[in-house]
Each structure stands twice: as structure tokens, then as C-alpha cells.
Amino acid sequence: MTHYRSIISKLTFVAVLCFSVLFSNNNLFAQDGKALFSQNCASCHAIDKQLTGPALRGVEDRWSSKENLHAWIKNSQAFLKTGDPYANNLFNQFNKIAMNSFPGLSDQDIDAILGYIKSAPVPGPQKEGTPSANPNDAMAEEGDNTLLFGILTLILAIVSFVLLQVNANLKKLASDKEGLPALEPVPVWRSKTYIMFGTLVLFMVGGYFTVKGAIGLGRQQNYEPEQPIFYSHKVHAGVNQINCLYCHGGAQDSKHANIPSVNVCMNCHMAINEYAGDPLYTAEGKEINGTEEIKKLYSYAGYEPGKPWDASKAKPVEWVKIHSLPDHVYFNHSQHVSVGKVQCQTCHGEITKMDEVKQFAELSMGWCINCHRSTKVQFADNGFYSIYEKYHDAIKNGTMDSVTVENIGGTECQKCHY
């Protein structure tokens, strides 16, 4: 009888522990879809807002079947050849810009992404008195339930511990009633089992946070520093449609995008000396006087309105750098912009809707690798890729319909590290 009770006690402990672990893993499953969405979809899609591609809420309802949607996500160009009317209308609606292919995503991965899209909270109405011109509100990330699930897991662990104590006491009472000798229960702080279990928990928790901190070392996603002059990309690149390359010409021709010099700013602001557009707001909701910010530019330029400007008196604006890569990482803007035809928004987000710029992408190695695996290169009629004869032949023979960055060595270590 005592032997059976010991077995039942152990089974109870294992069952409760497994239940606790499985329950805590619900959070992991819930986060998988969000992580996959961030890595593969967020550069072109939002859930409730049209970006480079359409808003994704209700995307399953817009397709005739989930199988077609899966096929479209994995290879949109191949699926277009089936003549599906919705797919072709979508392709034409977005100026015939091909959607990236994601052959590496399994059906389970895609279902996880679709599940995350379904479960994402619908944005509520804007609170009265909140500045509507602040785009950072619309770009805020959805809430995370990690803390909630962590608390529930802790509660379940405490319940399992209490149940073990109750089981031990019941076992002692039953033994006493039957007249069987019973050993006094070992105190928790002296029990090797509990000490080992507590040590393992501390080791796992400490290891998790150590690894997470090490992985995130040097990353600064959503970094949004205050600049010496409030420069609104929304006003310049969005409202006034100034091409990014007017200020960042190096992005097309060199490794670095470059920060424009003061004289580039003064090309326009010699004539524009006051701001009369929509209200400007900081990330904290503080309203900005645009005309005063132009005066700050004049101070750096050494310019007095109404008088000839002596450019030799100008001093550079001390802009705070936002996007930084480790010294051992090679990144060439012109290779991506001119050769790869990558849009600025892919890495920098909706820059045309930002008053204060922040780092949109995490710029991690995994983020770059995922992009290289799925992004097609402009292979045809591109002399830069003329050496890849086998891929040209494969396209002519119909065995390949496109070439990704990975195919031409975009995931090889020496391509980015030197």
C-alpha cells in the first residue's frame, strides 16, 4: 500500500508540473505568431493600416480558401499564374509590385501568423484631447501578455507545491491510522528534492535572462533620441514629397547614406523662414513651434534673414545617430538601394509618417538573414549578376522563376563580416 502511495505521489507531482509547463508554453505559442509576423511581415504590412501592402486584419475572409492564401504567401509570383482573380486584382492594386516569397515558412508558421493577426486587439477610438498629428500613437506596438502568463505560471507552481505538502500530510495520517510506522516529513529547507528543484528553477530563469540580455546586447530597436533641431520627416518626405535621395544622396551611390550638410537645408530655408503646416508633436505629445526650429537652423548656419548668407560661418548640426551597426558588420547602402531596389521603408519603417525618427527594425543578424532568404533580386537585365550563368539558364528553362539574395551568396558569412 505504501509503495502505491509513493507512486501516486510521484505521478501527482509530475502531472502538476507538466500542466504548469504546458500552461506556461501557451505564451510561447502565442508569441510565435507575433515573432514570425515581426520578422517576415512587419516591414511591408500592418494589421489595421495599409503600408507597402494591404492591412492584414480579416485577410483570411478575403481569400477563397486558406490553401490559396498559403500558396500566395509562399510564392506570390507562381500563384499569379493560376489566374486567381483576387490575387491578380491585389497585384494590380499595388502597382504590380511583387510580394516577397517565403518558401521557408511552413503551413504551421503561416497559421501561427494568421492566428496572431486574428488575436491582435482592434485599435480603440482616440481619446479626446490626444493630439491626432502624432504618428507614434498609430505605430505603438500591441500589448504583451508575457507578464500575465508568468504570474499564472508562478501561481500554478505554488499550487503544485501546496498539493505536494497536502499529499505528504495525508500519507502520514493514513499511515498513522493503519498503525504503520511513518517517517517524519523532512522540512522543505532540508529536502534534497526541493533544494534541487529550486536550484534548477533559478538556473533556468537566470540562464534565460542572461541569454536574452546577451542576444539583445547592442540592439536599440525603437530608439528615438531627441535631436538638436526638431526635423520632421513627415513634413519633408511625406507632406512635401521631398525625395529621400535629395538629402541622403549617398544611399544610392556609396556605402553610407550620409547626413545632409547645413547648406542642403539652406537651399530651401533661405526662402522658407516660417512653418505654417499642421501642428507638430514630440513622442511625449508636446507641441513644437516649427518656426522656432527653423530659427535654430539659422543659428547653426550663421544666417540672418534678409542679409546675404556667408556659408563659411556655418557649423554642422550635431545630429544624434540612431542606426548603428557593429564595426565587424559590412553594410552597403548603394548595393541595396541601386542594385537590390530595396525601398527605404523596408528597413526604416514608415519614415514619411514620422515626426521624430526612431529605429524601426531590430537590425539583428537574424533579421537580415530572413530578409536575404526571402527577397528576390532584380536578376534579369542586370549586368551585376551576369556571372551567375546557372541561374540564368534555370530561369530560361523554367526550373526557377526567381532568384533570392540567398541564392547568390547572401547568407555566406564573409559577405557581411570581414
Question: What's the SSE blueprint?
Answer:
Blueprint: H1 2-40, H2 59-62, H3 66-74, H4 76-80, H5 85-93, H6 107-119, H7 146-177, H8 192-215, H9 233-239, H10 244-247, H11 250-253, H12 262-269, E1 280-281, E2 287-288, H13 290-301, H14 333-339, H15 344-348, H16 365-374, H17 389-397, H18 413-416
Antiparallel strand pairs: 1-2
Helix pairs in contact: 1-6, 1-7, 12-13
Structure, explained:
This protein is an all-alpha fold and 418 residues long. The chain folds into two domains: 1-185, Cytochrome Bc1 Complex, Chain D, domain 2, CATH 1.10.760; 233-375, no CATH class. Helix content is 49%, strand content 1%. The protein is built from 18 helices and two strands. The protein has helices at 2-40, 59-62, 66-74, 76-80, 85-93, 107-119, 146-177, 192-215, 233-239, 244-247, 250-253, 262-269, 290-301, 333-339, 344-348, 365-374, 389-397, 413-416, and strands at residues 280-281, 287-288. Strands 1-2 form a two-stranded antiparallel ribbon. Strand 1 (280-281) and strand 2 (287-288) form a beta hairpin. Helix 1 (2-40) crosses helix 6 and helix 1 (2-40) packs antiparallel against helix 7 (146-177). The termini are far apart. Residues 19-30 and 126-143 have low confidence and may be disordered.
